[in-house]
Specification:
Rossmann fold; 6-stranded parallel β-sheet; two-stranded parallel ribbon; 11 helices; disordered C terminus
Length: 321
Amino acid sequence: MRIVIPGGSGQVGTLLCRHFLGQGHSVAVLRRQSSSEWPAQLEDSDVCINLAGRSVNCRYTARNRRIIYESRISSTQFLNEVIGSLKHPPHVWLNASTATIYRHALDRPMDEATGELGGGDPGAPDTWNFSIDVAKGWEQAFFSTPTRRTRKVALRSAMTFSPSRGGVFDVLLGLVRHGLGGTIGPGTQFVSWIHEADFANAIDFLIEREDFDGVVNLASPHPLPNRDFMRELRAAWGTRIGLPSPSWLLEIGTLLMRTESELVLKSRRVVPGRLAAAGFPFLFPDWPAAARELVGRWRRENESASSWKTRQTGGEVRWLE
């Protein structure tokens, strides 16, 4: 297959490129700066997976909010124009969305059929409402223009975990490794997640299943409270102790790190209703097994890097975290 991935230079795009290339497919990653090349790349392609959009791992200043919103909306609107104009458009277009579109949920799981979208919830921080507005605008731009010859799927994805450096799993494991991996905030907020292998396999599944369109939740079937999530991550690493991070301390920490506390304080209790009903075989449906596998690979990859550095320098390696 010929697969085109606008905005595919980030962590998720990189893992998908590796996955598709390993299967022998042709992959083209497109940047927003080269949008004039998008029509030629998409003509006669089989699959478009749009991941374009400024990272949300930043402070939600007025400028960053505008860039986050416009980068998602404009790229999606442009793709609607391009794909609608092609003689031989891709058969399927998968567009990134986010599981944060659902309300802060402690009481029950949120699937595609019965999940309640968030927005304007009493007492919700302004940053939470902004993220929901972005998600709604993103999907509205995606579905606003019919593409008769191209099937559309919006990917309401939870956090995708891989051992890659700088990813969300690497950051959380870093807290555990430095003794800070206790409960974050109240600990009752749910963590929705998906292992990178299940994410990639689900993408394959959605490409192949022509009966799937509309919105699809990409998440493991078993989200769990942050308190349990962090405890299992500590167990996978081999430590029982982790200092908790109360909400007030987290706000200070995220301010210093130039990011937002919403990423870990909002309860995302999202489940993959449509994938489960279709019998999608999750390799890692439960967090303890996924955490052990990810930690094992993180150790191997970093031990390998450490060994390589030692051979190159002929001496002891000093890690700068």
